[in-house]
Design a protein that fits this description.
- The chain is α+β, with helices and mostly antiparallel strands.
- Helix content is about 30%, strand content about 40%.
- It is built from twelve helices and 31 strands.
- Helix 4 packs antiparallel against helix 5, helix 6 crosses helix 9 and helix 7 packs across helix 8.
- The longest helix is centred in the first third of the chain and has 45 residues.
- The radius of gyration is 36 Å and the shape is elongated.
Length: about 650
Amino acid sequence: MKKSVAITLGVVIVGAGSWVGATWYTGKRIEESSQRHLAEANEKLAKLTPLFGLRLDQLKYERSLFSTQARYGLSFVKNDKSPDDMPAGMIEFDANVEHGPFPKSALARGAVAPKLAFVHAEIAKTDNIKPVFELTKDVSPLSADTIVSYGGHSSSTARIAPVTVTHEGNSVDFSGMLIDGTFDRDTQAVTAHGVMDKLAVDGAKSPDPVVISVAGMTIDVNSRMGKFGVSIGDSDLKIKRIDVTRPGDEVKVALDNFGYGVKLSEDDKSINAQAAYQTGDITVNDVALGNGQAVVKLAKLDGQAIKQLSETYNQLVRQYMLGADDEGLKDEQFQVLLDNAGKLLAGNPSFSIDPLSWKTAKGESKLTFTLDLANPANAKDLTPQEIAVQAIKKIDATLVISKPMIQDLMTQYAIKKEGLAADKAAAEADEQVRQMSGMAEMFNVGKNDGDNIVGKFTFADGMGDLNGKKIPAEELFSGLLGASGLGSMDDGEEAPGIGMESEEEPAAAAPAVGVMEDFNLESVASMLDDMGYTVNKSDGDEGPVLVLNAGSTGASDLRLEFLCNDFTEKCLDLVMTATYTSKKPMSLKAINAWNQEYRWTRAYLDEKNRAVLQMDMNAEGGIGKDNLQILLNTFMSIAEDFGAASKAAPAK
């Protein structure tokens, strides 16, 4: 019996000694690795921003047998580019480290397998952040509990403290936030799940009054470091309800079930990205606007090119912000950027929106768009227009607008915001949608297809197609690049300011194909003749005048007046006028109603009480011949409607 007790006691002593020894060894191992981890943390912090540095310092480290007490300080490090108002001092953190293999707090949480440590960390109460502790009622604003395994895997629970504060009639009510997560050191894999119940800001008593409420927010992350130095995985943000009210502007917005998610994936060569947005029902000033979604995708992005582009871009930004002057190095880096941009395009990446949609109970409007890219050959020797033509392999876009959906939204708005009767609001909305449909056809931006207006655009093999109308690449891109100031240059011509030794002004760029620099009398007369109008030319006070037959407009006088500059002899303004003579003049009430609805034109009564309709056009900077033709057709169509309105609304 005594021998048995002795053996048992010996086993207990040996076990206890082993446990104490293992605990001592673990504490020593943690201490030895702490400086290495601190250096790694500071290396990562230094890369966050070039405007200032962040530094983590170990302020205290006291190791005992079963635990270690440590304090760390996080502070800003200023440089020549740092803002003058950067906060001074540091934020200090206390860490209580329980040594493994069996930390008592880890055992209390059900972790019975051996662990390296259990760490409780929280922001310390110091003088410079004492006001923050007052907001959290003396609770640490941020705290975390972490269980660390010997293999480098850790699991954590972090807490952001609740805040409730009232000041001068305004208030903030924050429920706090709980975040559970894991981290694997070998794969740099991260998972996290965060929950916030409520954030309410009542600023109704502030100079710019606003009331905001956010309820039921969750954040989820599941990622790992990919082979190209990019975190691969999923991240999501969801909010159950958002309410925003601006009492001064009488604006009230409510949004249900907002969601945003990003997915990044990779294969042996490429990275693919997808961002998805989703909203539940949106209500603005009690008008239900429906719900929407958008899915944006980037596919076949060359992984190595993305990695090199990211690294070089970050280097350039840091150098620029820090005022580095090594021009040779910059030139080399810019060349790397260009080379890797070429590699990126060589993989034929694609960009797509599929779909961007908005939906109500009455219908759905939707946009789908796909852009496939290619790498232009010898891009250095090409003009911007030639680069655009060769880089764009394919475009395919379709826009569908639901007429019942638009009409319903207009009707609701007119009833609730403008106070119109339901029947009148519906009639006005129907008329506005009818006009919109006609304008879409007139400008060839869409075709009427039952309850929808459908617009389609494709581009491939150097030819565009807009709703059946062919547009050569030269015409398409000359207009787009000309509008952006990137028009093509002749061979040997240098960009303004590059290689110019004298003060000589650069020559004016030639007008783009199909673009008029001013209103040419013969060109305008030819357009009107093609439209079926008889044209008589005469002289006016400021330029030539074209007098037309009234056609279907019903006007007693129909004319176009050219307004020309005496010095340049260019006619940059064109005034189109239709005059209507009737036994009973049009009422001022009807004139005002017309001007409120038709904003492209103006209507008035002249000195003889005749109804007059006018529209001005300007060619400053150039005007496309197709656009001028559309404007002429638009005025004639509106003039026909005005003639009918003038007869239907006699003076009382």
